[in-house]
Amino acid sequence: MIEIVSASRCIECDICVKVCPANVFDAVPDSAPVIARQDDCQTCYLCEIYCPVDALYVAHRAEGHFPITEAEVEERNLFGSYARALGWKRGKAGGTEHDPTHRIRVAAV
Amino acid sequence: MSRPPSRTLPENSERMSSDRVKSTSNDPLHLQADVLVLGGGPSGAWAALAAAEDGARVVLADKGYLGTSGATAPSNTGTWCVPPGENRGQAVERRWQRTGGLADQRWMLRCVDQAYENLVKLSEWGYLFPHEDDGRLYIANLRGPDYMRFMRRRVLKAGVTVLDHHPALELLSNGDAITGASGVDRQRNRDWSVEAKAVVLATGGCAFHERILGATGLTGDGYLMAAEAGAHLSGMEFTGKYTLAPYETSLNKGLPYRWATFYREDGSPLVDANGEQISNGIGEREKDIAKALIDGPVFARLDHAEPALQDWLRRGQPNCFVPHDRAGIDPFKDLFRITLRAEGTVRGTGGIMLATADCGTGVPGLYVAGDAASRENMTGAVSGGGAVNSSWAIASGWWSGKGASTHARKSARKAFRSMSKPLGEAGLRPAGNARADLRTAEIIEAVRAEVIPLEKNYFRDGTTLHTSSERLERLWNDVRQHLHAEGVDRVRSRETASITASARWSLASALARNESRGMHRRADRPGNDPAFARRILVSGVDAISIGEAQISREGIAS
Ligand SMILES: Cc1cc2nc3c(=O)[nH]c(=O)nc-3n(C[C@H](O)[C@H](O)[C@H](O)COP(=O)(O)OP(=O)(O)OC[C@H]3O[C@@H](n4cnc5c(N)ncnc54)[C@H](O)[C@@H]3O)c2cc1C
Ligand code: SF4
Ligand code: SF4
């Protein structure tokens, strides 16, 4: 589930508030959004890729809280790691033309 | 093509979204439209585009955000992509052989044709498909986040008014036909209603609150709304589909397990009945894994994937590796614990019965698309996940949008608010006294205890189904008589009612199908019974009626 909104990275654009399909965040005037309904998070990682500055971290545990510090996420270079794997940058989509999934499907038969 | 796409609606949704934080008004929002689409997954997006192309004024309301909501957005969906030509018939025939005899080849054929046409449209519109080695475009795969973001742009460009975070709570009717829907803007806590000449239900399936990708909003709301309006549901017994996922994660994507081996907690390999080590988790061997999971923890390792394949998997299905990377596991070398995630009707096949070829439900003015509809026409008793469902979402979305806009054009009737009455009952208007002690979370947990465990729902038997069914009746009674909420909390109470109702329909249908077929596995009735080569229909909300429909390869498509 969503665990971290990095106040040091966040530019307060509120995109995550708008795009989270589970309505997990609340906007806060002149501040980074807060995780208001963590338990509703569906662990889809989509807020991460829409964030223009990689300020969000979603832990892999989908059932319940998974404590992790911002320092560890920074240290392990996990901020924005899913966006990089897809080819999304600064919240902008990209990378579908390089998707090799068709090779997997051929191999799976 | 009578009228141009119009933006004459009172407010523009994009502006509304960006003003959201500043807006303080709690005044209800009222809009008028020709076609109202409920749900912003692929089927809803295609429905909106199809209706807008006809010149209809279209409003699309989604519980979450068109672009990230629904089962496709977080996934990477393979489509059933069959190019025009003589081989189509064979491809359909081959696929039909696997559907437990419940699919309908005419629907299958028209679906592959429509889906192909629309996939080509996507490419023409600028969606970037990858190339195969021979230089041809590969259009049979759609990467969820990119595809749905692309569809959002397209829908907005077509002049559709998009209402994000506007869950629908109920349909409106003038007694003869559906005249719109109403709900709540959950980020501004204000009510909304849209008067429309036709409504498309594209609200997805019901995943019973299982924590799988995209399932947060998939609570069967459309089923309840449709049943309250008098529509039938079909195939609700086909909710026995489960997919492997790393333990406690949301990653219900089975493909990597094609190259996995499986182990018990003591490290001994899982073997099948013949003593062979199980090395493909997405085929017939899934049953053995399910049995082992009932006994205790099971682990996997993707050790049959060669280095080239490892690279493709990582680049092609990157989210499958996010949980492993974050947990510090190398899934090609290390053992990791797994689970089977229940998928309800999302990868099951049940849903609202289609009464007409334009995806009408039989209720005037009410259309249905995608996972909200029964997918038995396409895939019968087996799962349509992995290819068929996404093509169905495209094709049925398109047809329902056309059907709805045609209905809107033909209907001379003007929908006046004063004549329309809301149809919602359970979770909104309790039949008895409201009870504050009823907790939605507890009700949902109690429902899940009957429809999620492998030992009850993957492997079924009549006695267990009966016991579960009785428990569900008691839960339903609480919901129907006493569950009540105000404001935004109505979303959760309505979801609770929809989940409970969907579970009841599923159990009633599972009891009625007194045999095993596809994903409906009855230990007390192993094997197909030719007498059950027909559809099981359910209707009614408080009192459930069971019916049946004979199907032939011709079915009901025209
Ligand atoms: C992990 C995963 C992988 C998959 N992979 C494949 C694949 O490879 N191939 C394949 O063919 N299929 C696949 N599927 C299935 C496919 O994703 C679905 O069939 C498809 O998303 C259905 O589209 P839809 O628009 O009908 O529903 P969804 O995409 O689920 O969208 C439903 C929408 O309705 C909205 N909604 C719900 N209730 C309300 C309400 N009350 N008011 C307003 N809006 C509401 C939701 O917010 C959501 O946006 C996969 C599914 C999953 C979960
Ligand atoms: S999307 Fe990123 S930058 Fe924008 S508000 Fe959210 S966390 Fe901050
Ligand atoms: S992971 Fe998905 S559901 Fe969770 S906060 Fe991010 S966008 Fe919302």
The SSE order of chain A reads EHEEHEHHH
The largest β sheet of chain A comes out as:
2 strands, antiparallel
Q: How widely separated are the two ends of chain A?
A: 34 Å
β-strand amount of chain A: 5-15%
When the domains of chain A are counted, the total is 1
What Rg of chain B, in angstroms, do the CA atoms define?
A: 23 Å
Overall pLDDT score of chain B: 93
Distance between the termini of chain B: 23 Å
Name the overall outline of chain A: globular
Oligomer state of the chains in this structure: heterodimer
The number of E-state strands of chain A comes to 4
- Helix and strand content put the structural class of chain A at alpha+beta
Level of helix content of chain A?
25-40%
CATH topology descriptor of the largest domain in chain B: FAD/NAD(P)-binding domain
User: Strand order of the main beta sheet of chain A, please?
Assistant: 1-4
Q: Can you name the CATH architecture of the largest domain in chain B?
A: 3-Layer(bba) Sandwich
Describe the structure.
By secondary structure, chain A is α+β, with helices and mostly antiparallel strands. Chain A has helices at 15-19, 46-50, 70-75, 81-86, 101-108; strands at residues 2-5, 25-28, 31-35, 56-58. Chain B is of the alpha+beta class and 558 residues long. Chain B folds into three domains: 29-237 and 345-422, FAD/NAD(P)-binding domain (3-Layer(bba) Sandwich), CATH 3.50.50.60; 245-342, Alpha-Beta Complex (Flavocytochrome C3, Chain A, domain 1); 440-549, Fumarate reductase/succinate dehydrogenase flavoprotein-like, C-terminal domain (Methane Monooxygenase Hydroxylase, Chain G, domain 1, Up-down Bundle). Chain B is 34% helix and 16% strand. Chain B has 15 helices and 18 strands. In chain B, the strands form four sheets. In chain B, strands 1, 2, 5, 6, 7, 8, 15 and 16 form an eight-stranded mixed beta sheet that branches. Chain B has a four-stranded antiparallel beta sheet with strand order 14-9-17-18, covered by helices on one side. In chain B, strands 10-13-12-11 form a four-stranded antiparallel beta sheet, covered by helices on one side. The interface between A and B is large, with 45 and 63 residues. Bound molecules: flavin-adenine dinucleotide and iron/sulfur cluster (2 copies). Residues 5, 10-16, 32-33, 51-53, 55-56 of chain A line the site of one iron/sulfur cluster.
